[in-house]
UniProtKB/TrEMBL annotation:
Boundaries of every Pyridine nucleotide-disulphide oxidoreductase dimerisation domain copy: 353-462
Disulfide bond entries: 49-54
Family statement drawn from the similarity comment of this UniProt entry: Belongs to the class-I pyridine nucleotide-disulfide oxidoreductase family.
Chain sites annotated for binding NAD(+): 189-196, 212, 278
Sorted UniProt keywords: Cytoplasm, Disulfide bond, FAD, Flavoprotein, NAD, Nucleotide-binding, Oxidoreductase, Redox-active center
Pfam families (UniProt xref): Pyr_redox_2, Pyr_redox_dim
Name of the protein in its database record: Dihydrolipoyl dehydrogenase
Source species, domain of life: Bacteria
GO CC list: cytoplasm
Binding site for FAD: 58, 123, 152-154, 319, 325-328
Miscellaneous information on this protein: The active site is a redox-active disulfide bond.
Length: 474
């Protein structure tokens, strides 16, 4: 293999491998370095998302939802009776692993098809044109690159009060590999990861308690959406406790979790504890000290609006830089940087990046919330529509949820769209497209939506912005 390239990418997650593929498509010789090894010890591209994040968690969410519906009466309303329903957790985990292997194997083939050198080991920036590559087995070597893209992703945040051992106290990684259902499961953090992992094991029979430090549930989410979601999760049996600060943990026959809230000090006894308080950039050992790569106080690589670092010809993308830690955000940054390097116009609109929480019901949003617009002094108007009045949702027994559309009070340009309910991870795409093209609520209101579909709720919410909804009282 060569040791000189047009582009060297460090990291083969959604930001890195996408950047590498786009660079190769644009005619540049490209290498991608990645040190991740799967639990079987084998190197595997795909980063956190494909290996221990987005994909395996969705596989478990899907499996657990099927089991929950069959066992707990979710099918009886359809006239379906299921008896003696059981769950083989090891088989469920094995299916998850196969999904991961199939997809990461596909990434491997894509890298090969695009003639990208995939190097397994550690990459370290030692100048703005040189990377020290240390393979898992073998001696370090220097690779030259005219351009270098840093895409080393993120890892779970550790907290001193609950040090993870991946046996009794788990990170989100370990939570994906439990082979038995704990009777009582504690989760520190009721954000995206905590809610998704809590939902999986709650459906499988755990009594799940989530301890959230913030006083407000899902603070970044629209308040109406958050309230509706909180009620739905509580009805499902999730015990969500807000304003809780974990002070200590002790591991014995059970895990004792000591925490404080406004009512004083408490102790929670659980069989397993998941720590999901967020993620931090994976920049340890990324660059030699004398390179002077600029990081901020939290360890993120400092970049400009086009993901350029302070070093000439060195870019950084994905979780390792500012902005939301979302796989699709990282991928689009990777494409943008590849196109900029090739001399093409590259662009990413950070105002139209969608967010999704894959619970049941799902939560999805794009753009600003009412609270943000109020604090910024932006005049706005809004319209809502509940899935309870949507024919397809009622036919699916998925009447919990709503769509809210917020537009500028004077121009009607869409400023934010917020949803909770079935398939909102898919429905949000329509809102993203509308906002990307600077669309108005009236634009969505004038588009014909198929009947009966869940997307009609988007249509009705857009109509409701101007008090013209047909299937609700305005």
């Amino acid at each position: 293999m060569a040791n000189s390239y047009d582009v060297i990418v460090i990291g083969a997650g959604p930001a890195g491998y996408v950047a590498a593929i786009r660079c190769a498509q644009l005619g540049m010789t490209t290498a991608v370095i990645d040190e991740f090894r799967y639990k079987d010890g084998k190197p595997q591209p795909g980063g956190t998302c494909l290996n221990v994040g987005c994909i395996p968690s969705k596989a478990l969410l899907d499996s657990s939802e099927h089991y929950h519906k069959a066992k707990d009466g979710g099918l009886s309303v359809h006239g379906i009776t299921a008896k003696d329903v059981s769950i083989d957790v090891k088989k469920m985990i094995a299916r998850k692993d196969k999904v991961v292997k199939d997809l990461t194997g596909g990434i491997h083939q894509l890298l090969k098809a695009n003639k990208i050198d995939f190097k397994t080991g550690h990459g370290k920036l030692i100048s703005n044109s040189t990377v020290e590559f240390t393979p898992h087995e073998g001696k370090a070597e220097e690779l030259k690159g005219e351009y270098i893209i840093l895409a080393t992703g993120s890892k779970p945040i550790d907290i001193g009060a609950a040090p993870a051992d991946e046996k009794d106290i788990l990170t989100s990684n370990g939570a994906l590999d439990m082979e038995a259902v704990p009777k009582r499961l504690g989760v520190i953090g009721a954000g995206v990861i905590g809610l998704e992992m809590g939902s999986v094991w709650n459906r499988l029979g755990s009594k799940v308690v989530l301890l959230e430090a913030q006083d407000e549930f899902l603070a970044p989410v629209d308040r109406q959406v958050a309230r509706m979601a909180h009620k739905a999760f509580t009805d499902q049996g999730l015990d969500i406790r807000l304003g809780c600060r974990v002070t200590d943990t002790k591991v014995g026959k059970q895990v004792s979790v000591h925490y404080e809230d406004k009512d004083g000090k408490h102790t929670l006894q659980v069989d397993k504890l998941i720590v999901s308080v967020g993620r931090r950039p994976n920049t340890d050992g990324l660059a030699a000290d004398d390179v002077d790569l600029l990081l901020d106080e939290r360890g993120f690589v400092h970049v400009d609006d086009e993901c350029r670092t302070n070093l000439p010809n060195v870019y950084a993308v994905g979780d390792v830089v500012r902005g939301p830690m979302l796989a699709h955000k990282g991928s689009e940054e990777g494409v943008m940087v590849a196109e900029l390097i090739a001399g093409h116009p590259g662009h990413l609109n950070y105002d139209t990046i969608p967010w999704v929480i894959y619970t049941h019901p799902e939560i999805a949003w794009v753009g600003k919330t009412e609270a943000q617009l109020k604090s910024e002094g932006v005049p706005y108007k809004s319209g809502t529509f509940n899935f309870a009045a949507n024919g397809r949702a009622r036919a699916m027994e998925e009447s919990t949820g709503m769509v809210k559309i917020i537009s500028h009070a004077e121009t009607d340009r869409i400023l934010g769209v917020h949803m909770v309910g079935a398939a909102t991870s898919e429905l949000i795409a329509e809102a993203v497209v509308a906002m990307e093209f600077a669309g108005s609520a009236e634009d969505l209101a004038r588009i014909c939506h198929a009947h009966p579909t869940l997307s009609e709720s988007v249509h009705e919410a857009a109509l409701a912005v101007s008090k013209q909804a047909i299937h609700k009282a305005n």
